[in-house]
Design brief:
alpha+beta, 4 domains, 4-stranded antiparallel sheet, two-stranded parallel ribbon, 13 helices, elongated
């Protein structure tokens, strides 16, 4: 017995030294780790979470679409320019016409000669009678040939004038369009994009609340598992201490090997439980890092993970379903969707109303026809008004308006259904908070009994008046009581978080 007391005293001393070394290691390790509070985790998640970054990009997209919609009522200026290189020149005159014009004088002279043979014969008779007139006749023939050459030159000029040389073609136009009346479509689309931007903002807010709920759940899950890890370590230490006592009792022949084996099995089960808790704690830390936008292997410590008791002194939240109706982003989303479908109905109706716009512009082209056919860049301007209106479409507009109106009705019905579900959710969350607080009171009362039962069992076992199986049952009851206390305290915090979310007050 003295040997057993010595070993027990020595074992207690070793445990104290090990606990001191463990505390030193924890302090050294904490200096290398990030110690995060719940508020810091919330802020990091709102700032660095990847899913929220995508939602913010959608908000920017919808805001830009609204900014673009506001420009639809302003005048638009469009510039268009073209250039083409043609493989063949367009010819206004045929090849025969070109040849005829190039030999216009010769053809005319030949025609005259063919049509006046008598005149030529008479000229020959005159030359025979009066040879001295040959010079005059020769001069007349020369003048006729000069006249023919002049006509040939004029014909060539006509051919050259009709030559287009339009293988290089280019043009440019500047058009200004100012909408005057589009059937109300511009204003409706402007409001629609505004509602879409608000809807995206409410979707971002809902996503932020979901992420915050996940962060707080993961945070308190880590806190719970840290407490359970300490509990499992204490439970394992108590079982090992009991195993050591039973070993001494077996050596002193006051206990059997079967009793020692039973305790050893419990020790193995406690080691397995501790291993599961450690694995769950590692995964929970990784989940919290992912939600906070940190690398999964980031070593983090939580400010509340060393607490023996989770604080539940928070006052119950005030507010009813009216507050939830005003704050919940889901309802705001459905309201924005209702407005959007109303604007869609107006846009559909505007498609079947008159459209009036002011149009002004200038056009330039080469070759140009403003001063004959010229290979020069010349232009013109124009100002006018356009009017368009569908006259008959077999009631297409009526059917489309009915479809748009039905979509808005579906959204309104969903909004009413969402209000009823939110009212039920608020009541359920309040009931959950109340129930969790009652569980805390019951677990604390049960914990006092379990601690006292374990103390009496350990004392009776040392005095050898209580069986080892009863001591094991007391240890199990102690473990269960402490575990229920941790679970109930964490459940209160999670229930309070869920209630804040149900009321729209989580952000």
């Amino acid at each position: 017995m003295r040997k057993g007391l010595f070993l027990r005293h020595n074992s207690d001393a070793m445990k104290r030294i090990a606990a001191l070394l463990g505390l030193i290691c924890i302090i050294i390790g904490a200096s290398a780790q990030n110690v995060l509070t719940l508020q810091e985790c919330r802020e990091m998640a709102l700032r660095d979470n990847s899913s929220l970054a995508a939602s913010r990009a959608v908000v920017l997209q919808k805001s830009a679409e609204h900014d673009a919609a506001t420009t639809n009522a302003l005048p638009k200026v469009t510039l268009t320019a073209t250039y083409m290189r043609l493989g063949r020149e367009i010819s206004i005159l045929s090849d025969g016409q070109k040849a005829a014009l190039n030999h216009l004088g010769d053809n005319l002279l030949t025609s005259l000669q063919q049509r006046m043979p008598n005149l030529m014969a008479a000229a020959q008779d005159i030359l025979q009678r009066f040879p001295e007139l040959s010079g005059l006749l020769t001069a007349v023939q020369g003048k006729a040939q000069n006249f023919a050459d002049a006509l040939n030159s004029a014909g060539q000029g006509v051919v050259d004038a009709f030559s287009t040389d339009n293988r290089n073609m280019g043009g440019a136009a500047i058009l200004l369009t100012q909408p005057i009346y589009m059937g109300g479509k511009i204003r409706a689309y402007n409001r629609l994009t505004d509602y879409s931007a608000r809807l995206a903002a409410e979707q971002l807010r809902a996503a932020e609340e979901d992420v915050l709920l996940d962060v707080e759940t993961a945070y308190w899950q880590v806190v719970s598992l840290c407490a359970k890890k300490k509990l499992a370590e204490d439970y394992l230490a108590m079982l090992r201490h009991l195993e050591h006592d039973v070993e001494l009792m077996v050596e002193n022949e006051v206990a059997t090997r079967a009793t020692l084996l039973t305790v050893s099995v419990k020790v193995d089960e406690a080691e397995m439980t501790l291993l599961k808790v450690e694995d769950g704690l590692t995964l929970s830390r990784m989940l919290l890092c992912q939600l906070c936008g940190l690398p999964l292997d980031t070593p983090v410590r939580l400010a509340d993970e060393d607490l023996d008791n989770v604080s539940i002194a928070e006052q119950p939240l005030e507010g009813d379903t009216t507050l939830a109706y005003a704050n919940r982003p889901e309802l705001r989303q459905l309201e924005m969707a209702t407005y959007i479908y109303k604007e869609k109905e107006r846009i559909v109706a505007a498609d079947f109303r008159p459209n009036i716009a002011l149009v002004a512009g200038a056009a330039f082209a080469t070759p140009s026809l403003y001063n004959g056919f010229e290979n020069r860049l010349r232009g013109n301007w124009a100002v006018g008004v356009t009017f368009s209106m569908p006259l008959w479409n077999w009631h297409e507009g009526r059917y489309k308006r009915k479809a748009a109106r039905a979509e808005g009705l579906v959204t309104s019905l969903r909004l009413d259904d969402a209000r009823e579900k939110i009212a039920l959710q608020v009541r359920q969350c309040r009931f959950r908070v109340t129930e969790a607080r009652r569980r805390v009171q019951l677990s604390l009362h049960n914990l006092e009994r379990a601690d006292e039962n374990l103390r009496i069992a350990d004392l009776g076992h040392r005095e050898q008046v209580i069986a080892t199986s009863d001591v094991l049952q007391a240890h199990t009851a102690w473990l269960q009581a402490h575990s229920e206390k941790i679970d109930s305290q964490v459940e209160v915090r999670l229930a309070q978080t869920a209630l804040r979310k149900a009321l729209g007050m989580l952000d």
